Amino acid sequence: KAARIDVPGEGPLYFGSLGDALDYAAGMEQSPVTVEVLEDITDETIEVKPVKTPSNSIILDLNGNEIKEPSSLYVEKGADLTLKGGTVSAPVTNEGNLTNQGEISGDVVQKDGTFTNESDAVTKKIIQDGGKIVNEGQIGTVEISGGEYEGKPADSTNRTGAKVEVTKKNPDGTTTTTYYPSVKDALDNTEGDATLKLLEDLKEDKA
Length: 207
Known about the structure:
It is built from 2 helices and 22 strands. It has about 210 residues and is mainly β.
């Protein structure tokens, strides 16, 4: 068996694949639902679907196991997943809400939603096309073409395709940095006091 869910009043349910367990968890009323991984996942395309109720969330406890290539992990829009207790060396794509409390050594493609990194284990590489990154732990490299970045800086930041950096101070003292492909996009989407920084010379950019 690949995974287990302890269902209140029913006891443990066992699943032959991690994907089946996550599908079942997404339809449950309780929150959070913990899915416990029982073995290394080595060849599975894993899609985390939106939860049944907006307040629902899923905890994926890897229990010392690893999700390895050629497997892949995709968190869909509306899904809410927390990873802990193990390693994901397979590629990860996030369009929902993904919180990392474990170790992600594979590439993370951040497209939408929020990726929150709470792990002291280094998340090696994030390719950010959109959405938001909140870093409370360690990130090796971030390649940013668009989206928001908040929290501790990464060890290395490459701003690929981003032409404008907008920095705003939050009421709690933290800073949010947002990247845009043009000055027009930056001005259209920025309210209140903010600092705009051009990341490259402007040639044809109609503000």
